Amino acid sequence: MTDHSAVIAQADQGLEASLERLFELLRIPSISTDPAYKAECRKAAQWLVEELDSLGFEASLRDTPGHPMVVAHSTEAGEDAPHVLFYGHYDVQPVDPLEEWTTPPFEPSIVTGADQTGNITGRGSADDKGQLMTFVEACRAYRAAGEKLPCRVTILFEGEEESGSPSLKPFLEAHAEELKADCALVCDTNMWDRETPAISTGLRGRVGEEIVITAADRDLHSGYFGGAAANPLHILSDILAGLHDENGKVTLDGFYDGVEETPAEVLKMWEGLGQTAEKFLGEVGLAVPSGEKGRSILEQTWARPTAEVNGMIGGYTGAGFKTVIAAKASAKVSFRLVGKQDPDAIRESFRAYARSKVPSDCSVEFQPHGASPAIQLPYDSPLLATAKEALSEEWPKPAVLIGMGGSIPVVGDFQDMLGMDSLLIGFGLSDDRIHSPNEKYSMTSFHRGIRSWIRILAALAAKKAAA
Amino acid sequence: MTDHSAVIAQADQGLEASLERLFELLRIPSISTDPAYKAECRKAAQWLVEELDSLGFEASLRDTPGHPMVVAHSTEAGEDAPHVLFYGHYDVQPVDPLEEWTTPPFEPSIVTGADQTGNITGRGSADDKGQLMTFVEACRAYRAAGEKLPCRVTILFEGEEESGSPSLKPFLEAHAEELKADCALVCDTNMWDRETPAISTGLRGRVGEEIVITAADRDLHSGYFGGAAANPLHILSDILAGLHDENGKVTLDGFYDGVEETPAEVLKMWEGLGQTAEKFLGEVGLAVPSGEKGRSILEQTWARPTAEVNGMIGGYTGAGFKTVIAAKASAKVSFRLVGKQDPDAIRESFRAYARSKVPSDCSVEFQPHGASPAIQLPYDSPLLATAKEALSEEWPKPAVLIGMGGSIPVVGDFQDMLGMDSLLIGFGLSDDRIHSPNEKYSMTSFHRGIRSWIRILAALAAKKAAA
């Protein structure tokens, strides 16, 4: 077992330099969904390859039909050490609306938050560059302390996580042998609160879908045609309004097939976390849970499926007024899935429902935007117990096991294609505003995150050695 | 009674010169909504003053806080002759998207259309410079024939019709005595088809309203918050979808107060026009009337009130996908009114309905965008009968009385402020593409329009003399 207190001391001493490296990465606007930023995505990948190279990894950039992968290996721990695959993504979300940012999204800085702690600002600071750099910097601390990494480590960073990961499955398939490990470490998750680390054991799945309704072959004057011509905004509103019933349940045929009730002991564990609607929604200026009636806020967001409209546009949306009946209207809709819900069946059910609402002289088109089933990880794995203990040593409060409302499709892919479970450990906070203007990552998350990985790698190795 | 056949002969002989004068006016880019064209608006007004001056009118340019009015008087017909106020507007719509014009918008020309008839091209050719010049050139033909105008004529041309007419009401109020006449002639309307002239006897009113729903104080991640946080796009869709029932009726409380059934004889007259849903909607690629069930297409667009969503936006609407729950969503909604529907009551009813649908932790704001009641002109006025007869003499087919789905607020202002009904007679065609690229005005509309006014002025005078 390595003496990881020396490594932790290195992490503490090197924090400022660690931060400067993170800033370098944050300055690269690697927005994967927008083709205009293709070169920037590659630049971020290349930056990571060089970084890992400098840490003694055998690192390389791997081209895909989309943005490149970064793969790196460290085998210095030897054959007997545990082998982990660390996964993260270097791409980021778009930054609109830009005018709402109080600091430029790609000029990171440290801003003192309302709670008097420092926050790292910028797009990707929390999702996911800040998080993945906690692991990279943990590796650096081992090197700086003159220690070997205690585990064999493979690193996989992708550049398409924010745009549906189209290249991921083919890449995993083609490189299954190279990427297989004892378990994956996935860092794209949150703590329970700023003092309490968490391991996520459930992840909702996701189906993304775009719907475009076309009515007339041109925009019409609503005086001449109003009352006679089909209005695609009416049709679309009707479709979207009909997705939920008065109790907040989704109305699609077969939508709840495969949804199971959460076990009583799990619900009890969640109750113990003391979350309330007031606290959870109060942070974003809301108060009333809008979802399924009769479910706690944690159940609503961790264990129940949803339908959400993520965007909608049609007709005249500029200043002033224009009496137009639009030719087209469109919306982006996503479904969060739990249990054994089948993403393909849900997509088809949505399409059949929408088609049934479209008049015969209008048309509807659909475009899929990703699909992944929900994931449930075992509560009783020894790896999980070890990581939980290591985390509990680092933070003021012991680690807890939680669910996650978001989707991390790669976890399912690791299960299905590499036969490998994941440990979902990240240091994000619920107020990090990921995907929103003014995204930030707490300095504490970054610093203690680095220290946490140092401890976890050491603990996993010690556990295996003791077995 | 003047021998108007000589005047008509003059109009025929002078057609080429009439056209050249119209072209001069069309070359002036008098776009009222764009401050960059302020001087051009004034130039168009000045051009009209000089034109009317040369015809023996006592014409003047009158400054307003916005673009100037043109007022002109001809009293040579004497006190016993009928007195008409002719209204038109010299301002035009913007021309964007410029690249869709096949001829430059301010370089008028004659282009032979698909139907082998000549069309006058250019912005304002139909709306409204071509139309108003039919009247001016009718006056010129009288003068050229050495005849007095048979009616006392007051002319009012405004320069802000395409930008909401902010100066019109104050001007009418300040000059009520000067502008009052037996009736107004308003030329901003269409024929029934290219062979059948029409007088519009009903105009729908309009209420414009913008609604903004705010939920959370920031955009949220739909994974973390979906199923718990209010989604303004759901709330707005629900509000908009609920505006109509399954029979296409508007559901707002009191919405149909003041709506009267169209008299059976009027419905019968409309039936005689032979309009069908297939023809009307077929022109724009549609087939199925979307409005109130059990009403003909003409009733739906002329005599029934509507609610239309003119625009809607919220969330992520760019390329790709973003799993966001928007903080805000907004829509622009307009109501077309008929009969005695009260615009203010309808606005309030909409607001009360919308408020009732907004959860207590979300907020809703409204912004009004104009309001005008519907106009119904008497079917039995002797002036209307006289004009109808005169029009029927000019055109291949007899004139018909029609409704209009759009709104012309000045007609209501003339009623309310000058106590004067209007005759709505214009020679536009439904394919003139007003407000769009490649606006045109048929040569037949222009030529027979001039001849029509010659006949109408003569007929009105003869009718009064005979009474």
TrEMBL record, chains A, B:
<dbReference type="InterPro" id="IPR051458">
    <property type="entry name" value="Cyt/Met_Dipeptidase"/>
</dbReference>
<protein>
    <submittedName>
        <fullName>M20/M25/M40 family metallo-hydrolase</fullName>
    </submittedName>
</protein>
<feature type="domain" description="Peptidase M20 dimerisation">
    <location>
        <begin position="202"/>
        <end position="361"/>
    </location>
</feature>
<keyword id="KW-0378">Hydrolase</keyword>
<dbReference type="GO" id="GO:0046872">
    <property type="term" value="F:metal ion binding"/>
</dbReference>
<keyword id="KW-0479">Metal-binding</keyword>
<keyword id="KW-0645">Protease</keyword>
<dbReference type="InterPro" id="IPR011650">
    <property type="entry name" value="Peptidase_M20_dimer"/>
</dbReference>
<dbReference type="GO" id="GO:0006508">
    <property type="term" value="P:proteolysis"/>
</dbReference>
<dbReference type="InterPro" id="IPR002933">
    <property type="entry name" value="Peptidase_M20"/>
</dbReference>
<dbReference type="Pfam" id="PF07687">
    <property type="entry name" value="M20_dimer"/>
</dbReference>
<dbReference type="Pfam" id="PF01546">
    <property type="entry name" value="Peptidase_M20"/>
</dbReference>
<dbReference type="GO" id="GO:0008233">
    <property type="term" value="F:peptidase activity"/>
</dbReference>
